[in-house]
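sry for the spam today, last one i promise. C-alpha cells for design, 373 residues
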C-alpha cells in the first residue's frame, strides 16, 4: 500500500480537529492531566488521536503506522498545534519505547506491547534518571540481581514523567558492577503495578504533578521482562530511533502557534516595544525551524535546535506573561492560564532531554573538536 501524502494527512488532521476539542485541562506539549476526570477525558482523546492514525504517523507501515514523511508529520503537527491540541498520553511509548521494542524486543514482547502502544491504550514512563545519575546516566545504581530465573530490582528513580498514570515503565537497571559503567546496564519492561513498585508524585513550580519519584523494593520480574541482551541496556536506550527532526520540529511548531496567538491578540494596538520584541522572537523561531529543515542535518544540529528552542521558549513565555500583566489586551482566560503555566515550566525544557550546558559541551567537543578544559 502506498502511504498517504502530505495533503491527505493534513486533511485527516483537520477532520480530527473539527471533530475533537482539546481534552479537559490540556496545556500544549507533553503535560499531564491533574485529576481522574481530566485523565479519563485525555486518555479517551488520545485513543481517538491514535485511531485516526495521527499519533503513529511516522511508524513504518509494517508495524501498523502511517509510513508518512517527516514533512507530512510536521504539517500534521502544525494543524494540531494551531488548535492547541496536546500530545497523546502514549507519546513516550510511541516515540521511545515502541521503536526500542521493534528493534530489540522478542516476538512475544512485540506482540504484547506494540499494538497497545499503537492504539494509545498503554501509557509508558521512562525510568532512567536517578538522584545521583542524570547528566551522568552511566552512574546509575538501581540494581537488578539474578535469583534463579528471576530478576530482583532494588533502587530509586526520579523525574519520571507520567509514572503516576503509567501502565508500564522502560527501566534501566544495573546488572553488572558500578565500575563497568554503561556496559553493566540492562533494559527492563516493568509493569507499574508490580509488587514493590512505589510511585510518589513530585510537585512542580507550576503547582502541578507531572513527574515522580519511583522506588523499587524487591520487585521480582521474570527474564521475559528483559529488553535486549543482559548488559546491553545502554545500547538499547541510546539506539532509539527517535526522529530528532520531527521532535524538534514539533517543539518549534508549537511555539510558533503560541507566537501567532500572541501577535494576533493585540494586533496594531501593540505598543512598539512589545511589537519589536515579538518581531525578534518570530524571526528567531523561523531561523530555528529552518535549521531543523536542513537536509542532510548538519552535525550537532539536533542539540543546537534543542538548546535554541528551550531558550526561545523561555523568552516567548516571558513576553506572554508581560502581555497578560500589562492588562491592556483582551486575553482569553485559557490562553493566559496556559502562558503562565508554560512560563513556570520553561526551565524544565532546558534540562530534560539533556541539560543545555551538557549539550553545549557535546557540540564543543564532538562537532567543533575543541579540547576539554
Ligand atoms: C521536565 C523534565 C522531565 C523529565 N522527565 C524525565 C523522565 O521521564 N525520565 C527520566 O528518566 N528523566 C527525566 N528527566 C530527568 C532529566 O533527564 C535530568 O534532569 C537531566 O538529565 C539532568 O540530570 P540532573 O537533574 O541529575 O542534573 P545534574 O546532572 O546533576 O546537573 C545539574 C547541573 O549541572 C550541570 N552539569 C552536569 N554535568 C555537567 C558537565 N559535565 N558539564 C557542565 N555542566 C554540567 C547541568 O547542566 C545542570 O545545570 C526529566 C527532567 C525534567 C526537567
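last one done:
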Amino acid at each position: 500500500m502506498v502511504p498517504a501524502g502530505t495533503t491527505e494527512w493534513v486533511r485527516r488532521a483537520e477532520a480530527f480537529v473539527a471533530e475533537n476539542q482539546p481534552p479537559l485541562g490540556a496545556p500544549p506539549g507533553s503535560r499531564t492531566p491533574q485529576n481522574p476526570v481530566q485523565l479519563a477525558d485525555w486518555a479517551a482523546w488520545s485513543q481517538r488521536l491514535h485511531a485516526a492514525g495521527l499519533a503513529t504517523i511516522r511508524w513504518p507501515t509494517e508495524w501498523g503506522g502511517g509510513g508518512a514523511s517527516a514533512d507530512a508529520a510536521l504539517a500534521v503537527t502544525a494543524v494540531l498545534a494551531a488548535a492547541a491540541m496536546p500530545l497523546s498520553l502514549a507519546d513516550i511509548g510511541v516515540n521511545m519505547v515502541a521503536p526500542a521494542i521493534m528493534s530489540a524486543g522478542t516476538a512475544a514482547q512485540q506482540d504484547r506491547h506494540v499494538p497497545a502502544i499503537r492504539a494509545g491504550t498503554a501509557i509508558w514512563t521512562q525510568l532512567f534518571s536517578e538522584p545521583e545519575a542524570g547528566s551522568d546516566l552511566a552512574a546509575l545504581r538501581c540494581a537488578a540481581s539474578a535469583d534463579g530465573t528471576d530478576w530482583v530490582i532494588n533502587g530509586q528513580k526520579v523525574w519520571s514523567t507520567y509514572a503516576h498514570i503509567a501502565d508500564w515503565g522502560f527501566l534501566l537497571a544495573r546488572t553488572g558492577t558500578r565500575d563497568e559503567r554503561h556496559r553493566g546496564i540492562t533494559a527492563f519492561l516493568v509493569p507499574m503495578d508490580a509488587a514493590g513498585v512505589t510511585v510518589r508524585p513530585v510537585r512542580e513550580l507550576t503547582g502541578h504533578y507531572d513527574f515522580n519519584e519511583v522506588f523499587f523494593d524487591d520487585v521480582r520480574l521474570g527474564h521475559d521482562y528483559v529488553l535486549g541482551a543482559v548488559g546491553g541496556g545502554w545500547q538499547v536506550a541510546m539506539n532509539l530511533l527517535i526522529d530528532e527532526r520531527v521532535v524538534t520540529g514539533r517543539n518549534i511548531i508549537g511555539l510558533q502557534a503560541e507566537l501567532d496567538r500572541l501577535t494576533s491578540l493585540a494586533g496594531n494596538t501593540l505598543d512598539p516595544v512589545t511589537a519589536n520584541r515579538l518581531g525578534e522572537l518570530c524571526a528567531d523561531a523561523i531561523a530555528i525551524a529552518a535549521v531543523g529543515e536542513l537536509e542532510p542535518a548538519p552535525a550537532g544540529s539536533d542539540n543546537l535546535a534543542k538548546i535554541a528552542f528551550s531558550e526561545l521558549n523561555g523568552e516567548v513565555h516571558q513576553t506572554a506573561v508581560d502581555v497578560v500583566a500589562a492588562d491592556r489586551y483582551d486575553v482569553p482566560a485559557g490562553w493566559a492560564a496556559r502562558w503562565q503555566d508554560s512560563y513556570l515550566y520553561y526551565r524544565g525544557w532546558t534540562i530534560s532531554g539533556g541539560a543545555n550546558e551538557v549539550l553545549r559541551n557535546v557540540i564543543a567537543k564532538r562537532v567543533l573538536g575543541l579540547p576539554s578544559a
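Strands lie at 124-127, 143-147, 150-158, 168-174, 185-191, 197-203, 209-222, 226-227. ok im logging off now
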